[in-house]
Specification:
Elements (H helix, E strand, L loop, with lengths): L6 H19 L6 H23 L6 H22 L6 H24 L3 H6 L1 H23 L19 H11 L6 E5 L6 H10 L1 H7 L3 E5 L6 H11 L10 H14 L5 E6 L6 H6 L7 E7 L8 E4 L5 H12 L11 H11 L3 H11 L4 H12 L8 H13 L5 H9 L9 E2 H12 L9 H9 L4 E7 L10 E6 L2 H11 L9 E6 L6 H4 L10 E6 L19 E6 L3 E3 L12 E6 L5 E5 L11 E5 L1 E3 L14 E5 L19 H16 L16 E5 L19 E5 L19 E3 L21 E3 L21 E3 L21 E4 L1 H10 L7 E7 L6 E3 L2
Parallel strand pairs: 1-4, 1-5, 2-3, 3-4, 9-10, 10-11, 11-13, 12-14, 13-15, 14-16, 15-17, 17-18, 18-19, 19-20, 20-21, 21-22, 22-23, 23-24
Antiparallel strand pairs: 6-8, 7-8, 24-25
């Protein structure tokens, strides 16, 4: 016979859970927001639990035991969540899932096992549980939207959606039918397929069926089973998976899906091209509760059920158009209602056309409307094909005629592969060289904002700081573009003959070069920006294919093969200023030969992304005009650390002696011996997510003009060179998320021009240099997430120019202990949310 259960036992367990939640909610835990909601929920249900405790004698013991299990497991779960570190995104994800399942179990308990009398009193509790579930869902949706590497979370929804409610209901009905295994949403580009798919994923009924197992991937024309498998496994924190073949990738995906059972699974594949139809076929696994939803501009009838998305009716189309064209939505005086109706008719129900064309006419005078209507009236029907849509959307680009540089910037975006995130800093550097003669990089952001305000690009935040730092760029973006708009850019750029185009974009499949290239005409290419994309089967041999392009200023190489050599015709590009080399394969592309860069006398900016380097990389560090070097997700190994820049690297004691001698010479006004510098024009050096970078190049201090040094997410970096202090012109030093770095060199105090220092999320730093007080120009110090730091050196009181300190709550107490000496410093305490994706001010 089971032991008797007392009401007092239930009350004690409930009190213990409530106490833990209150304690954790009052501390800077990673689940602070969730704990606050749990505290409110538990406080509200406390009287109901007391009532159940008094009714123990009238309740089946089994139900009471279930309630005790929920309370016991809830306490253990809260305790476990409080121990998870903010950087452990996977464990946070797992813990959130468990909390959601606990919510679901509690709701089922109160719905099915509590008497109706109590159930009616618990209506407010159920509302709180639903609200909590929705908030967690929104957090997870944000996690997917910010674009974490490998994330398969569902992106967020547009601000305004018109005319999709009945479509959503029909689509939901068809997806949930038992015999539906694969459902395809098909329509021409710009009809809203992706929006409808996102709506479905965010729908409450769909979430109740599939829960956390909704996986969302964009499938481009170049996608493979390997790339899909890589994203899926990264989504679950498995970053070290290797897939030998396409068949191996398929098998491992199937095993992953089976491990997720017995829960239902929804795999959403967005923007699938006809070339990728076979990939979807291979992802059709015979797993109970497993479904696939595909969006495509093609009719992929062989996959299964197809939902053909219709265009907007006139009423919905007019509503959407007016929202984009007028602010507020009321039609202003002077714009005839008939003109609005005609414009809506010309857009022919394409949601993207209404949004883009409406934005191009927003706040424009009446004559602009007349001119646009006249141009549209001369075109053919927009309903017949995607080309008609491109013709319609061209009006949004014609609106940029008065801003010719912004129009060229829009056309430049065709140089990048579809469905890829482009760093805004890359575009700024590129456009500064093309249109500002290498000056005013910050002003180039105006071109991007102009395109964004007209809905021609989307901006996705990369990292958002908690405060506005006056005089500093505190927010960066990935730039994305709808594939139809990318096609529009390519379409417009290709209207001129090959030799006369300013933007020349080429895609090479296998080794099939364009005919105009293989004919080897003597006529030179006059393009200023050249983009060459090669696929996985490209042989990486350029020997037989010369190219005469003397006016190219920006060269963008998009690579998918495992090995690659830079084309030798780069030697002839005497005007080349910007080089962007990006690997898009599952593994970093091995760059076998870059010797041609040795003769590139005009190069100012080089960006390598997802590249594996060999010993030839030393050539880069001999280019005298280089202003900016960027390495992103590159496999560095021992190549860069073994490069010696200028003089021999000094140990700490030798460096300190030279510093003392140099100061003495300055005091006595004695002329020191002329020093040899390397990279004399380099102002920016960046390493981001270079996971095997352990050391920086020897002689780093010889880069005399360096102003910005950024080393972020390099988790193997364990030391900085002592000669860092020789960078006398350094203004910003960002060492963000270098988790093995234990200290800054003492010479850091010699950086007299340093204005911003970022050591946030450097978990292992346990001490700051005693000489940090000598940073006489330091204005901003970012140090949130420095968990190993337990005290500040007394010299921080000498930082007279320091205005802002951004830190977490633990670190803020260290500054309070310093006392009134830093009374003019603004201490901003920030907290990362449970997914570590954004930061917010909490006081």
């Amino acid at each position: 016979m089971a032991d008797p259960i007392s009401g007092a036992a239930i009350g004690a367990l409930f009190s213990a859970l409530l106490t833990e939640v209150i304690n954790k909610a009052s501390k800077p835990a990673r689940f602070r927001t969730l704990h606050e909601h749990l505290k409110i929920t538990l406080t509200e249900i406390e009287p109901r639990v007391d009532e159940m405790s008094r009714m123990v004698g009238n309740r089946p013991e089994e139900a009471i035991r279930k309630l005790i299990d929920y309370l016991t497991n809830g306490k253990e779960l809260v305790l476990k969540c409080s121990t998870i570190q903010f950087w452990n995104v996977y464990q946070i994800y797992v813990c959130v899932g468990k909390l959601k399942r606990l919510d679901k179990a509690l709701r089922r308990f109160f719905q099915e096992e509590v008497p109706m009398k109590l159930l009616s009193t618990n209506a407010s509790l159920m509302n709180r549980v639903d609200e909590l579930k929705e908030k967690v869902d929104r957090l997870l949706a944000i996690h997917g939207a910010v674009g974490f590497p490998g994330s398969c979370g569902v992106p967020g929804l547009p601000e305004v959606i018109v005319g999709f409610d009945h479509r959503l209901a029909e689509l939901k009905y068809r997806l949930l039918k038992d015999d539906t295994k694969v459902l395809v949403i098909s329509a021409p580009g710009g009809c809203g397929k992706t929006t409808l798919a996102k709506m479905l994923c965010h729908d409450k009924d769909i979430k109740d069926v599939f829960g956390q197992n909704i996986l969302y991937l964009i499938v481009s024309r170049q996608s493979s089973l390997k790339s899909i498998a890589l994203n899926l496994f990264r989504h679950y924190g498995k970053n070290d998976c290797v897939f030998q073949t396409e068949e191996d990738a398929k098998n491992q995906i199937e095993n992953l899906m089976r491990e997720m059972g017995p829960d239902n699974i929804l795999l959403v594949l967005d923007d699938v091209w006809s070339e990728s139809e076979s990939i979807v076929q291979q992802l059709r696994f015979q797993i109970p509760g497993y479904k696939i939803m595909v969006t495509s501009r093609f009719l992929l009838n062989s996959l299964g059920s197809t939902y053909e998305l219709s265009l907007l009716n006139h009423e919905d189309a007019r509503t959407l158009f007016c929202h984009s064209a007028f602010s507020p939505n009321a039609i202003p005086d002077g714009v005839p209602d008939d003109d609005v109706n005609k414009m809506v008719e010309f857009c022919k129900g394409f949601p993207l056309a209404h949004t883009a064309v409406g934005a191009s006419l927003c706040r424009q005078p009446l004559f602009k409307w007349k001119i646009t209507l006249k141009k549209l009236s001369e075109g053919q029907s927009i309903l017949q094909s995607d080309k008609r849509l491109l013709h319609c959307l061209k009006t949004s680009i014609d609106a940029l005629d008065e801003f010719p540089i912004s129009k060229n910037c829009f056309l430049d975006l065709g140089a990048f592969p579809e469905d890829k995130h482009i760093a805004d800093t890359l575009l700024m550097d590129m456009w500064a060289e093309l249109y500002n003669d290498g000056k005013d990089v910050d002003n180039a952001s105006e071109y991007l904002l102009k395109l964004s305000s007209r809905n021609l690009v989307n901006l996705v935040p990369i990292r958002k700081y908690a405060v506005e730092l006056q005089g500093y760029e505190n927010e960066h973006y990935y730039v994305t573009q709808h594939d139809v708009l990318r096609e529009l850019a390519i379409h417009i750029s290709s209207q001129e003959p090959i030799s006369e185009r300013k933007q020349l974009f080429m895609e090479i499949h296998g080794n099939e070069f364009p005919k105009w290239w293989t004919q080897k005409t003597e006529q030179p290419i006059n393009a200023r920006i050249l983009s060459i994309s090669t696929d996985e089967t490209f042989s990486s041999s350029w020997n037989e294919y010369d190219l005469n392009a003397p006016n190219v200023e920006v060269l963008i190489l998009n690579i998918r093969s495992k090995h690659y050599s830079l084309p030798q015709f780069i030697r002839k590009m005497s005007q080349l200023k910007v080089l962007v080399v990006t690997g898009y394969g599952t593994c970093p592309t091995q760059l076998d030969d870059i010797s041609c860069l040795g003769s590139s006398s005009s190069l100012r900016c080089i960006r390598f992304e997802h590249i594996c380097f060999l010993s030839s990389v030393h050539i880069i560090f001999k280019l005298r005009k280089i202003k900016k070097l960027t390495f992103v997700t590159c496999k560095i190994g021992d190549v860069i650390p073994h490069i010696t820049l200028g003089q021999k690297r000094l140990d700490r004691s030798a460096f300190s002696a030279i510093q003392v001698l140099r100061k003495a010479c300055n005091t006595l006004k004695v002329c020191a011996t002329k020093r040899h510098y390397t990279l004399p024009n380099l102002t920016d050096l960046e390493f981001d997510r270079c996971y095997d970078l352990k050391n920086l190049p020897a002689g780093l201090g010889n880069i005399a003009q360096l102003q910005n040094l950024s080393i972020t997410n390099c988790h193997e970096l364990d030391a900085l060179p002592e000669e860092l202090g020789s960078l006398s012109n350094l203004k910003t030093l960002s060492i963000h998320s270098c988790t093995k770095l234990q200290e800054l060199p003492e010479s850091t105090g010699s950086l007299q021009n340093l204005q911003l220092l970022d050591i946030s999320d450097c978990l292992s730093i346990n001490v700051l240099p005693q000489q940090i007080g000598e940073l006489s120009s330091l204005r901003v110090l970012q140090m949130s997430g420095c968990q190993g730091l337990h005290e500040l050196p007394e010299s921080v009181s000498k930082l007279l120019q320091l205005k802002d300190v951004i830190c977490d709550e633990e670190t803020s107490y260290l500054w309070k202990n310093v006392g009134a000496d830093v009374g003019n410093v603004k201490i901003t305490v920030v907290e990362k949310d449970i997914l570590g994706s954004f930061m917010k001010i909490i006081r």
